[in-house]
Amino acid sequence: MSHSILxxxxxxxxxxxxxxxxxxxxxxxxxxxxxxxKNWTNDPNGLVFYKGExxxxxxxxxxxxxxxxxxxxxxxxxxxxxxxxxxxxxxxxNGVMIFSGxxxxxxxxxxxxxxNPDPKDRSCLVAVYTGRxxxxxxxxxxxxxxxxxxxxxxxxxxxxxLNLKDFRDPKVFxxxxxxxxxxVAVLAREKKVRFFGSRDLKRWETLSDFGPAGSTEGxxxxxxxxxxxxxxxxxxxxxxxxxxxxxxxPAGGSGGQYFVGxxxxxxxxxxxxxxxxxxxxxxxxxxxxxxxxxxxxxxxxRIWIAWMSNWRxxxxxxxxxxxxxxxxxxxxxxxTFGDGVRLVQEPVSELQRLRGKxxxxxxxxxxxxxxxxxxVHADSYELIAEIDLAAAEExxxxxRKGGEDSTTVGVRRDLSEVYIDRAHSGxxxxxxxxxxxxxxxxxxxGKTVRLRVFVDRSSVELFAGDGRTTISDRIFxxxxxxxxxxxxxxxxxxxxxxxLWPLASIWK
Length: 508
Fold this sequence. Notes:
This protein has helices at about 5-15, 20-25, 365-375; strands spanning about 40-50, 55-60, 70-75, 85-90, 95-105, 125-130, 135-145, 150-155, 160-165, 165-175, 180-185, 190-200, 205-210, 220-230, 235-245, 255-265, 270, 280, 285-290, 305, 320-325, 330-335, 340-345, 360-365, 380-390, 395-400, 405-410, 415-420, 435-440, 450-455, 460-465, 470-475, 485-490, 495-500. By secondary structure, the chain is mainly β. The chain folds into two domains: about 5-350, Glycosyl hydrolase domain, family 43 (Tachylectin-2, Chain A), CATH 2.115.10.20; about 355-500, Exo-inulinase, domain 1 (Jelly Rolls, Sandwich), CATH 2.60.120. Mean pLDDT is about 95; it is low at about 1-15.
């Protein structure tokens, strides 16, 4: 099959999809999370901002709703909220699957691949990805001179080949102090991150290794490395090295860990003992997180997105005609706590544009809150609540409630933890590891707790402790399970303040 014919086939798969109105009627179709129109998706790839657009590439099988043939799907957005689907960017060809990777703006044409007709603009987009064959995994590049609409694979691929079967997931960025491109990739089964340097994105030299460290139960995947200023002290900068693990996460199965330290252009040094494990998220469905490249300095945010699923049951999720969604975009910060420097996360502020008219409650008892909430029926909303536990040891909300269904989000003061319990959230029998209760630490849990929760048709994301603890879980409620209730175990719990905003669909 010629390249042109193959490309046409991929285009057909993308544009021949159900009308968006029909998609909105799908019971588990997320309304404000990204999902493909149809077929399988997993890791987000190549997140980059360029000329007014956020680009989201993602692992995609154009031929079906199960993991198999891998290409890069593609969507763009002006705000990381409203996404426009584009044709497949990098199709699988000639026995080479397109595995995970990253994308950068080559502002100064270091690669020699930019052919911009504007003489004042030397830039283009370059994707760096793993080309996977039956024999091995190696790193390839492709480039685009039309804002990512079409892509050309570099004729000299692969640009980095160690002749290894499990060498993948390159994350690339420009390191100004050493005036070179840095690639972070994993030797997956060795539980190591390897750092490489290049002047032109085409010739790479080995710099150093990091690991094993932290969680080593599963293979390592999808690394990222970036600097963050310490909140409240902009003169201090730390580097965050993110590494996902295929198994061994707190809720079971796959998840993401991170390390805090320093990077000198060659070596990453961990501030904590190698045995210390810091987790990004305490739910079951937050994996392969990766951050945007080239967000303008005037913006200043570091933002990432993750795949909301778990390799234990991703292939069995009861959705159709699509399988897999992406998390909300989250702003990352570093904050100093009593036990050290830790990552905190908060949803991007652009999501507030989706808010409808709020339901607001202040200084109310359990009964009073539930009288107000009895009229609320919604399947996609944002909830912010400040709870006074008083003498109660546990309190929270039953979400997507109806019949025998409910997903519980709560706080246990005696255990200093927050949790999501999806044991009775709806469809759970498709895999024995799906139902369960997933908890994260809330070290400062006292009488007063603030919870921020995003509920979509098939997901819940909880932010607590001002973003230090997050829990992300998929749910599959029955039709009509759209109620919400406040509960307290023990006496005296009250809602100090509550706001619930219905969130508009991003697809309308």
